[in-house]
Write a structure and sequence with these properties.
The chain is α/β, with parallel strands linked by helices. It folds into three domains: 66 residues, Serine Threonine Protein Phosphatase 5, Tetratricopeptide repeat (Alpha Horseshoe), CATH 1.25.40.10; 90 residues, Rossmann fold (3-Layer(aba) Sandwich); 123 residues, Rossmann fold, CATH 3.40.50. Helix content is 36%, strand content 13%. It has a five-stranded parallel beta sheet with strand order 6-5-7-8-9, with helices on both faces. Strands 3-2-1-4 form a four-stranded parallel beta sheet. Helix 11 links the parallel strand 7 and strand 8. The longest helix is centred in the N-terminal third of the chain and has 14 residues.
């Protein structure tokens, strides 16, 4: 094992212990020996983002797009200048969706900032998000993957939008930024989402067991927000259901981001080793209306479900 590999593995092991200081130290050692290694840079970026070092963290984390197996999630290179914070007043800026639905909803907060700076924003996004972004963000939307004709002054992949802003936890645009559609009666007061995308991160701890999920769906006034249960055709339909609820309870998945973006109270069930956007802070700097319910070191969801029941029943 090389020194780079040893330091990288040491950093990853510290991350899995939730020891961010040790993880940063080890990964910086690996970075010093291999400054262009995308896996090292992305791993260090995640540590820094979780610790609140957002400017350097996003710069490092952006290396994820160079890692093997991520090509299908990365925006293409376009024949226009890449936006990295240049003045945009009166300029046409194209945002190209990349990565998962939850990521795109999370980064959509920066569209409001761009519009406030005078940008004419067009977002090319997947069909399931098109109506939500067109109505909820008030931007021009191109649904689909590759329209025949594009013209803009700048373009930016959606997950690279933070690189254009001087960010800290204190300066994050965290106010509700997706306007809620007209509420549709959901048949209950509490929406629950018990599984995320099991293909994302190899499904790592992103779903409750059937028994645990049943316990949440049995809460007084609870309804299942899974599209197969509600008949929702897209995220706009799901947002209309959320708009009429008092509370959303969700595993770490796009529904949690959607509820937070709408300013709806949301209880997010997060693993023992949570993603970087769920730091151990109250309130959550990304979604102030979110409250986190964390697994213990045993990585068992049962005590988390029990705590949710205790607080509601």
């Amino acid at each position: 094992m090389t020194d780079v590999q040893a330091s990288f593995e040491e950093g990853r092991a510290a991350w899995l212990r939730n020891d961010l200081s040790a993880a940063e130290a080890a990964l910086r050692q690996a970075l010093a020996a291999a400054p262009r290694n995308p896996a090292v840079r992305a791993a260090l970026g995640a540590v820094l983002l979780k610790a609140g070092q957002l400017a350097e963290g996003f710069l490092m984390f952006d290396a994820w797009r160079q890692m093997p197996g991520r090509a299908d999630k990365v925006a293409p290179t376009l024949p226009f200048p890449l936006w990295r914070g240049q003045p945009v007043d009166g300029k046409r800026l194209l945002v190209w969706s990349e990565d998962g639905f939850g990521d795109q909803i999370m980064y959509a907060r920066f569209v409001r900032e761009l519009a406030a700076r005078g940008a004419q924003v067009t977002w090319l996004c997947p069909v399931p998000l098109a109506r939500l972004f067109a109505e909820g963000l008030g931007v021009t939307v191109l649904p689909g993957d590759q329209p025949a004709d594009l013209s803009c002054d700048y373009y930016c992949p959606s997950s690279a939008l933070p690189l254009g802003f001087p960010l800290t936890f204190e300066t994050l645009p965290s106010a509700p930024y997706i306007d809620a559609p007209a509420a549709v009666p959901a048949g209950g007061r509490i929406g629950v989402m018990t599984a995320g995308n099991l293909d994302n991160l190899a499904g790592r701890n992103r779903a409750l067991t059937p028994g645990q999920a049943s316990r949440l769906r049995a809460l007084p006034g609870a309804i299942d927000l899974a599209p197969e249960a509600t008949g929702a055709a897209d995220f706009h339909d799901t947002a209309a259901l959320i708009a009429g609820l008092d509370l959303v309870i969700s595993i770490d998945t796009a529904v949690a981001h959607l509820a937070g973006a709408m300013g709806k109270p949301v209880w997010v069930l997060v693993p023992y080793v949570a993603d970087w956007r769920w730091p151990d802070l109250e309130p959550n700097p990304w979604y102030p209306t979110a409250r986190l319910f964390r697994q213990g070191e045993d990585q068992d969801w049962t005590p988390v479900v029990t705590e949710v029941e205790r607080r509601l029943c």
